[in-house]
Write a structure and sequence with these properties.
8 helices
Length: 209
């Protein structure tokens, strides 16, 4: 990545980390995907039960492969015939992996979900939540974060899954009530009541959507 962009990301990440700390969450900065993976693994003790909510960023840094090959109980919902059982297992897991659709400079996490398994696990259940978040997802404020989630992340995901929504065709949110909409549940995480539960690894890269 360009040296100037890297310097900017490093400085901005410290602002976000400070904001997360004020909200009882822990932030980290990784200069590369490999460093992000190592930080994540340091937060996941061997033998832990680990699951995730479909975050592309978790795959992009090589974390899923490392967990599958390591001494972990990785619950891969794609390998489950009963998808509901896999989703329910997440609530009792030691660690839940995710990304975030957007994050504000002062540490507010914004996430949108269709089935709500991802946002519900972020909010409640798993003992620890580890988020992998590219610096491309940092927004100035809550309004900007919501716009990013609805107009960038959501349309790309509907296109990725081949869903029949207006945003699949237009590339931008149409505030629809389509049966295929993935904008069913909105989670705004502005504070964590449980210290040490939510960990956000900010990565000096463009990750996910």
């Amino acid at each position: 990545m360009n040296e100037n962009i890297t310097k900017r990301n490093e400085l901005l990440a410290q602002t976000v980390i400070k904001g997360l700390k004020s909200r009882n969450m822990t932030g980290y900065y990784a200069a590369s995907k490999e460093e992000a993976k190592e930080i994540a693994l340091s937060l996941i003790p061997e033998g832990s039960s680990v699951t995730m909510g479909g975050g592309m960023s978790v795959h992009e840094i090589g974390l899923v492969k490392a967990l599958q090959e390591g001494n972990y109980n990785f619950i891969d919902r794609d390998a489950y015939e009963d998808k509901r059982a896999a989703m329910l297992a997440a609530y009792d897991a030691d660690v839940f992996l995710s990304s975030s659709n957007a994050i504000t400079q002062d540490g507010i996490l914004v996430n949108i979900d269709g089935n709500a398994n991802r946002v519900s696990a972020i909010a409640q259940g798993p003992k620890k939540v580890v988020m992998i978040v590219g610096m491309n997802k940092v927004c100035d404020d809550w309004d900007g974060a919501m716009k990013r989630a609805r107009n960038v992340a959501a349309p790309i995901n509907t296109q990725r899954f081949g869903l029949n929504t207006p945003c699949t065709k237009t590339g931008t949110c149409m505030d629809c009530k389509s049966p295929d909409t993935i904008c069913c549940q909105f989670l705004i995480t502005r504070f964590s009541r449980h210290a040490g539960r939510i960990h956000v690894i900010l990565v000096n890269d463009n990750l996910g959507f």
